[in-house]
Amino acid sequence: ELSTAIAGVGGGTNTPLFHAYGTNGFQAIPNATLTTVNVSNERFDSDDAFSTSTKRFTPQTAGKYFVYGNIARDGNWSAYARLYLAKNGNDADSETLFNTTDDVGGNGGVHVSGIIEMNGSTDWIELMVRHDAGSSVNLWNSGNVNYFGAYKIAE
User: Fold this and answer.
1) Which residue has the higher pLDDT, 49 or 105?
2) Which of 38, 62, 93, 109 counts the most CB atoms within 10 A of its CB?
3) pLDDT tens digit string along 41-99?
4) β-bridge partners, 155
5) 3-class DSSP state for residue 96?
6) d(C-alpha 112, C-alpha 99), whole Å
7) How far apart are CA 101 and CA 53, in angstroms?
8) Strand locations in the chain, DSSP E?
9) What is the value of pTM for the model shown?
10) Which residue has the higher pLDDT, 123 or 3?
11) Alpha carbon distance 139, 153 (integer Å)
């Protein structure tokens, strides 16, 4: 069972948990626009808490969750990439958002992770990206390098 394979992290069963990844097609990211990363394939989803249509994780179990995400650029970026784990769509409040920035450009990857508390009823998390390259740029078209996941670590 999936929860048994992850058991022990944080001292208990670490469900709900999920890992989703992108498609094998390019995803265009418009300039200066916070955009949800298209992670519409699931590797696993223990409690059906991740929606492949909205790309949101909405656990119905209250607790603290380790949440992570990653993107890879396809080489057409000339500006930074900022990657967000946004809780309830919030992209400004530091208590409900983790973000990281990579300004190398090119086709490098950007990873973000953090611990976020969820109420178990209405809270949700999504993976978002933004850049200011001046025009639309693409995420790399290999789905396994663009991913988003989470698992419960504590009550």
Assistant:
1) 49
2) 38
3) 999 999 999 999 999 999 999 999 999 999 988 877 777 888 889 999 875 555 556 77
4) none
5) helix
6) 6
7) 26
8) 17-21, 27-29, 35-36, 41-45, 56-57, 63-72, 81-87, 97-102, 109-118, 125-130, 137-139, 147-154
9) 0.86
10) 123
11) 30
Which token pair is 83?
């990657």
Q: Are 153 and 65 in contact (CB under 8 A)?
A: yes
Diameter of the chain measured on Cα atoms: 47
CA angle (98, 100, 105) in 5-degree steps: 155
Quick one: which of 58, 51, 61 has its CA closest to 13? 61
- 122 CB neighbour count, 10 Å cutoff: 9
Quote the percentage of the chain above a pLDDT of 90. 52
Q: What is the pLDDT of residue 95?
A: 52
Chain center to CA of 39:
8
Check if the beta carbon of residue 33 is closer than 8 Å to that of residue 128: no
Among 140, 133, 130, which residue's Cα sits nearest to residue 36?
130
What's the rounded Cα separation, in Å, for the pair 116 and 96? 7
As a whole number of angstroms, the distance between CA 49 and CA 47 comes to 5
Q: Where are the alpha helices (DSSP H) in the chain?
A: 2-6
Burial 48-85 (b: 16+ CB within 10 A, else e): ebbbeeebbbbbeeebebbbbbbbbbeeebeeebbbbb
